[in-house]
Amino acid sequence: MQQNRAPELLTAPDVDLHAIADNHLNPERLLLKKADNELVRQAVEELPPEFREVIVLRELEGLSYKQIATVVEIPEGTVMSRLARARNRLQQRLVSHGNKESTTRLEVGAF
């Protein structure tokens, strides 16, 4: 006579549960991601309105160049130009912020 047993839990041998937990639940990573997101949000807010408008429509809303051109009522070429300029300004702002942060760390660490 077989007894009722609780089913055994089986895991695939190639699944590293610790790595999954480390990648998704690491408080340090979550804090850094939150700080990065805040920095990007702030940099986007500092863009001139015509650049902010197209970058938000493209990167956050997922609209195509053609859709953005229709919504903003500008030629597609202007959409592409503004996106390129917006991305360039964002990159400069984020790199600039990274350099300031690195310099501050070095100065503080020196004392």
Instruction: Classify the helix fraction into a percent range.
Output: over 70%
Major sheet summary line: none
Name of the CATH first level: Mainly Alpha
| Poorly predicted tracts of residues | 102-111
The tally of domains stands at 1
What spatial form do the alpha-carbon principal axes imply?
flat
Q: Tell me the number of helical segments per DSSP (H or I, 4 or more residues long).
A: 5
CATH architecture group name = Orthogonal Bundle
Integer average pLDDT = 77
> What pattern of helices and strands is seen along the backbone?
HHHHH
The share of residues in extended strands comes to under 5%
Give an overview of the whole structure.
By secondary structure, this protein is mostly helical. It has a single domain, classed as Winged helix-like DNA-binding domain superfamily/Winged helix DNA-binding domain (Arc Repressor Mutant, subunit A, Orthogonal Bundle), CATH 1.10.10.10. It has five helices and no strands. The chain has helices spanning 17-25, 27-45, 49-60, 65-72, 76-110. The longest helix has 35 residues, at 76-110. It is flat, with a radius of gyration of 24 Å. Mean pLDDT is 77; it is low at 102-111.
